[in-house]
Amino acid sequence: MDKFAPFHHHYNPLIHQNGHCPPIQKPKPRAHSSPTSVSLASTATSLAASTLSSPVMYPSPGILSGFGSLDGLSDVRTLGSVKAMHSQVIKSSDKRTSEYMAKTLITFYLELGDFRLAAMVFFLGFARNYAMWSNFLLEFKKFGGDPIEILEVFKDLHCLGVNFDGRLITLVLKICASLMDLCLGLEIHASLIKKGLEGDVYVKGALMKYYGRCWGVDTANKVFDEIPYQDNLLNEAIMINLKNKRFVQGVDLFKRMQFSFKRANAATILKMLQACGKEGALNEGQQIHGEAWSLLQEMESSGVTPDLVTWNCLLSGHALHGLYKEVIKILRKMQIAGFRPNSQSIPSILQAVIELGFFTFGKEIHGYVLRNGLDFDVYVGTSLIDMYLKNDRLNSSQLIFDNLKNKNIFSWNSLISGYLFKGLFDDAKRLLTQMKQEGVKPDLVTWNSLVSGYSIWGRNEEALAVIDDIRSSGLTPNVVSWTSLISGCSQRGNYRESLEFFIRMKQEGIEPNSTTVSSLLRTCGGLSLLQKGKEIHCLSIRKCFHEDAYVETALIDMYSKSGDLKSAYGVFRKRENQTLASWNCMIMGFAIYGLGREAISLFQEMQKADILPDAITFTAVLSGCKNSGLIEEGWKYFDSMDKEYGIEPRIEHYSCMVDLLGRAGYLDEAWDFIQAMPITPDASIWSAFLRSCHVQGHMEFAEVAGKELLELEPDNSANYVLMTNLYAMSNRWDDVERIKDLMVEKGVKIRQIWSWIQIDDRVHVFSAGDKPHPDEGQIYFELYQLVSEMKKVGYVPDINCVYQNIDDLEKEKVLLSHSEKLAITYGLLNTRNSAPIRVVKNTRICPDCHTAAKFMSLVRSREIFLRDGVRFHHFKDGSCSCNDHW
DNA sequence: AGAAACGGAA
Question: A223 beta carbon < 7 A from strand B?
Fold first, then answer.
């Protein structure tokens, strides 16, 4: 229904009827005018002129008898029927009841959205009754009247010195704040002071908001300070401070609120939660979160129903703090309470859906959005784009994007980042061009998506070039830009570059944040750089990131991957409320050290703590079973996945089971298991099976597995090597040659095998093909001595580990040159007597080196940690943590 | 009252 502009100043009845009014000041020029007011005003002119010329009196209700009662009318009230009633009213005048009739007509017209007629009736009946103006303007606003019109009328009346109702002053101050009408707000405040009126709590609140928005937070705080009893306005004061980034003041006021008789309202709690999230203030955040829950509970128990705004506050507050399961619970609660999610609920819900991986539910929500016509909202659209992106449905995302009526930078950035994540750089560039053509300027988010996209796909030079593009576009690369680069390299396994970019970032004078630290820890873990990892740990303590859940988990992972399980466990135990990811990490930590029983008991403890496991938990538990040869337990947990937890086993779980069965010698069972799998076996399955065949010396199965594997991974040299070793074991030298020829034919190069050890700041690499270590002579001298000592206590070199067609003495020599032996020996020579030795090898350890390391730990009384391609071995007093299950 | 970029476990 068309709005009308009844209060255009030319037709302000107060001015037309100046004869009956107090002395008139000339109205000031209007700051705002409705764009449609001119044409609409002409209609108003004629109407006003015609009615003003002949004063009309209103009839008594008796006249209306032909219409039935007013109440009866209310059911089927239409504009036509009200007008008919109105005309009857005009025809027969009766002074006594005129006021009642006029009020009724005004309400009817307002309800029907005919502001013009409502205003007309009001002008004729009440224009000179100033007390009525407040009521009328408030009603006018209630039914959707234009706030600008209200301001215009208010100004005119204000000039006349009219006193207004506090409710109207509150409303006008709100309008001043939203329209940034600086002068009127001041005038109102001044006249309140002049008249000695304090104004009620609402007026004061509105005044503070007005000052906060129009004159800055300090002015608002001044107003607040002058209020004698402040408790009622704490919510507003907190809000104003937080909106203006005064976090400390906001928290102070919030603490005051806890000692007052007042409670924080939903909006305040939400804003506090947001602010705490941004400021990384965890303790405050958790306290406030508790407050949010108790608020909801209190509302429920006292029978007060939260309104939609409160529900939405709760949804977004929980989503913001990563409490996604709570978001879903709140959604259910609000639906039970009879509220339908609106366009502002959907983004928070979708965020939770994405994080929880409830894709089917997400699609249902999409259906709901379409049925309820919420798809025109740009926030909803962007959230949907994001949901389909995260579920690998780029086409759906593009489709939603194309149908989006109002695109903004968020929508563009979402889709662009989707393409970049998939490595579809041409599509991303196409969108970038399109975006610029449509006049949307890329912002830092756009650029950072590009940096991240390039670096996770290993295109570091292009990523670095984008950093320069940022500068030439007039923006400055920030900590996110650099962290994108660092983390991209780390994810890709380009660890060295990752550290180099960190140094570059520091040179640029940019301080790392907790995300940077997490990425760097991943890098350190990847390289088993314990020293560097400890440095980063110190850095994170200095910067107070060490309580960040991500950083903590990354620390646990770094320590366990760097051979320091004790420190990993220390970090894990330091905190009480562990996240699922950190439980998973710690269980995995035990698993890679072959501490299967410990992994299982931690898993049980986790369940006692009411943390539900996910698929990754089971990967960790099953890895623990696999690395410790716990067959029964492995079966038990594998079966329970689907039955007890409703988690569908994925390929990595099947792979663990094949490994577990095969390694224990149950090759037939492993074979049957593979045949019965509901998913197509991939390379990880066949590789686990092949390695078991190798250990068991089962040629028939090995050849089947090898054939599958060479087809699935024709470029992986490890498969060829394993096959040649198998044939060499059975003295099938023709087949050895055949496989070698195949490698040449396919251009597959054997992967370099190397071991390294860090002594002080230097990393010493030992590799068969590489140039020898400068201290090689000394190392071999020590190694020969060591081996003769070891032989005295029972070491027998395992010449079966050498697959060359040479004599046994030569084989023994070859065994000595294995890189892990050299690295351990170097460690023995160059570290303090008590210090454990930490060696990293990029492939699996060979059985002879495993035996040798046990003896080395015995004869030299040293702990040796060896990280091989897949796991850890901890040698101590002549035995290994893996109990020879590997 | 809501949406997009960088972070942990496999």
Answer: no
